[in-house]
């Protein structure tokens, strides 16, 4: 019989602890201590309270909790002394029928991991979707995490223990996060389209207007139309996928939302895409319930945000803001294909782009859901965070020019080495950015074009990405970096070019929209945690023309992003959809 919050909230401490037996392996003390935090308004709040008990329990108790868990395919499994839950989980993951080689490898990993960290490797083998990780993925994760620092691994083991507990609680409550499953599965399906040269390696790269990019647009349009019940769906002149779900009054103002579906090279499945799928799931539910909001709902899959194929960024959201610069059409990609040619090849009509500019008087504002892309929520065991402001950013492409010469005959004091100059600059950027809180500076691309082992580099190109919570801090850093580059080049007898390729102002959230996200998070029984966004988002483009605010969702693997390890859980995605639904329902009274 399923557990319920009413039962738990009414239970005495013993009954409460008994009801939650097995949620945390051999560790009833966690439920015992969480009892005093009742009543619990939601399952999410209960999960958070249990995690808080562990966080506040201190190092020794945390280590005891980790050590209370069995090794994967370890001695307890062989001796058949696993708990029922662990037996089910390890069995479902195929760990009970390893080949001799797999079994030997896992034993070695167990030994090495214990020897290095002093506690067993913990992984929620039912995985982020709750349906079980493949054995190969489990082993690969084991091998990868073996080399992490021990304090990181201790935190990662605890996060996996909370995920194991979350799945066990869902089972006890017979709760399937169906809306989160839908979002998770859409992301999985869309990730099967990837650019050549990456797809073959199982890497996800979808850059602007490639075949994979166009396939993604088709899939999104199809799902919007066929699965979700949008009234109008179109792929616009810049490649955005635009879905409209009319309100009861077709002429009422619209709420605009969405995010991007392009990716960085070898990126993750959720950056951008989560912010398309979550509102799509909301529309699917509205359509299923035959419900109409008293305002229109416009969900956009923005075609380009990452600036991977062309230097210009925010092409999709920039077009809606009326800020698409026609000069971008002449930009060339690495193969010399102009953006205009790429658009023509994709059947898009660049001349129609100016028509995409939205009449902002017809919109209530813009909201965007996005993965955090950082470690903050993950470290706090919080599923959701409300964004206060998006950091301002500026990007450059630069080149230092010296003189290529023979590596063997050119004395060290007679070189005009472009790469060593660039190396000095990279270290300066790191030092300068580290000197001020909430300022970051990155040289993400660094290369000696047509370099050779035995040639002193005559040229070295580099990118520069500087961001801060305020434009003033951002610009001061950019000025200092340029000044240092000049000093380095004068001293070394080199010269340089530095071209600004993107500038986006810091974008504070509109207070009323931020408050709506806060109320939505609160309605789930979760604490409202507010935070700035270090990453740039389409919302900062729409910020230029209408009020905006964002909701963050935590990522797994310490929130890593722009990396194939980017991951989310179905439970968190479910909470995200519920929060968005609450925001929509909040709006209705304001407007009627
Ligand atoms: O770089 C960014 O912040 C975003 O992911 N494009
Ligand atoms: Mn990104
Ligand atoms: Mn993004």
Written account of the structure:
The mean pLDDT is about 95. The longest helix has 23 residues, at about 150-170. The chain has 21 helices and 16 strands. It is of the alpha+beta class. Strands 1, 2, 3, 4, 5, 6, 14, 15 and 16 form a nine-stranded mixed β-sheet that branches. α4 (about 45-55) runs antiparallel to α10 (about 150-170), α11 (about 180-190) crosses α13 and α13 (about 275-290) packs across α21 (about 570-590). It has helices spanning about 5-10, 15-20, 30-35, 45-55, 60-65, 75-80, 85-90, 100-115, 135-145, 150-170, 180-190, 210-230, 275-290, 315-320, 340-345, 375-380, 420-435, 470-490, 510-525, 540, 570-590, and strands at about 230-235, 240-245, 255-260, 295-300, 365-370, 385-390, 390-400, 405, 440, 445, 455, 460-470, 495-505, 505-510, 530-535, 550-555. It folds into three domains: about 5-170, Oxo-4-hydroxy-4-carboxy-5-ureidoimidazoline decarboxylase (UraD-like); about 180-390 and about 505-590, 3-Layer(aba) Sandwich (Aminopeptidase), CATH 3.40.630; about 390-500, Alpha-Beta Plaits (2-Layer Sandwich), CATH 3.30.70.360. The structure holds (2S)-amino(hydroxy)ethanoic acid (HGY) and manganese (II) ion (2 copies). One manganese (II) ion binds near residues 305, 370 and 537.
């Amino acid at each position: 019989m399923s557990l319920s919050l009413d039962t738990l909230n009414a239970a005495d401490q013993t009954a409460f602890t008994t009801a939650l037996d097995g949620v945390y392996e051999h560790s009833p003390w966690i439920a015992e201590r969480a009892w005093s935090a009742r009543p619990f308004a939601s399952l999410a709040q209960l999960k958070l309270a249990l995690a808080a008990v562990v966080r506040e329990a201190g190092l020794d108790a945390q280590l005891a909790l980790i050590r209370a868990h069995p090794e994967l395919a370890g001695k307890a499994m062989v001796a058949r002394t696993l708990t029922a839950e662990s037996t089910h989980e390890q069995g479902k993951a195929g760990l009970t029928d390893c080949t001799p080689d797999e079994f030997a490898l896992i034993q070695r990993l167990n030994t090495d991991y214990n020897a290095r960290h002093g506690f067993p490797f913990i992984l929620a083998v039912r995985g982020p979707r709750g349906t079980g990780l493949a054995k190969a993925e489990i082993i690969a994760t084991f091998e990868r995490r073996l080399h992490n620092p021990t304090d990181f691994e201790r935190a990662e083991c605890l996060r996996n223990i909370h995920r194991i507990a979350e799945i066990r609680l869902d089972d006890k409550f017979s709760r399937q996060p169906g809306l989160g499953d839908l979002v998770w599965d859409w992301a999985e399906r869309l990730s099967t389209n990837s650019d050549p040269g990456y797809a073959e390696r199982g890497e996800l790269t979808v850059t602007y207007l490639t075949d994979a990019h166009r396939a993604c647009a088709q899939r999104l349009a199809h799902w919007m139309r066929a699965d979700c019940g949008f009234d109008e769906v179109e792929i616009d002149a810049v490649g955005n996928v635009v879905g409209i779900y009319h309100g009861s009054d077709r002429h009422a103002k619209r709420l605009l939302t969405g995010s991007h579906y392009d990716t960085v090279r070898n990126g993750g499945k959720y950056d951008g895409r989560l912010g398309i799928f979550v509102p799509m799931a909301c529309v699917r539910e509205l359509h299923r319930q035959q419900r109409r909001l008293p305002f229109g709902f416009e969900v956009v899959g923005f075609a380009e945000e990452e600036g991977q194929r062309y230097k210009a960024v925010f092409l999709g959201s920039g077009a809606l803001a009326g800020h698409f610069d026609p000069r971008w059409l002449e930009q060339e990609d690495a193969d010399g294909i102009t953006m205009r040619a790429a658009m023509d090849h994709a059947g898009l009509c660049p001349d129609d782009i100016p028509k995409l500019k939205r009449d902002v008087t017809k919109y209530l504002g813009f909201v965007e859901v996005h993965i955090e892309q950082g470690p903050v929520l993950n470290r706090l065991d919080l599923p959701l965070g409300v964004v206060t402001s998006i950091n301002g950013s500026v990007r450059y492409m630069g080149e230092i020019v010296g003189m290529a010469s023979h590596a063997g005959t050119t004395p060290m004091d007679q070189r005009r080495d472009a790469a060593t100059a660039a190396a000095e600059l990279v270290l300066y950027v790191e030092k300068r950015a580290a000197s001020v809180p909430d300022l970051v500076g990155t040289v993400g691309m660094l290369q000696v074009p047509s370099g050779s082992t035995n040639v002193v580099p005559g040229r070295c190109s580099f990118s520069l990405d500087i961001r801060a919570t305020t434009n003033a801090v951002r610009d001061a850093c950019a000025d200092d970096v340029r000044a240092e580059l000049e000093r380095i080049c004068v001293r070394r007898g080199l010269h340089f070019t530095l071209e600004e390729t993107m500038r986006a102002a810091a974008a504070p959230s509109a207070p009323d929209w931020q408050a709506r996200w806060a109320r939505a998070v609160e309605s789930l029984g979760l604490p409202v945690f507010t935070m700035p966004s270090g990453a740039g988002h389409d919302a900062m483009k729409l910020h230029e023309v209408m009020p905006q605010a964002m909701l963050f969702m935590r990522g797994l693997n310490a929130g890593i992003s722009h990396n194939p390890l980017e991951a989310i859980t179905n439970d968190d995605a479910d909470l995200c959809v519920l929060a968005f639904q609450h925001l929509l329902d909040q709006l209705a009274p304001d407007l009627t």
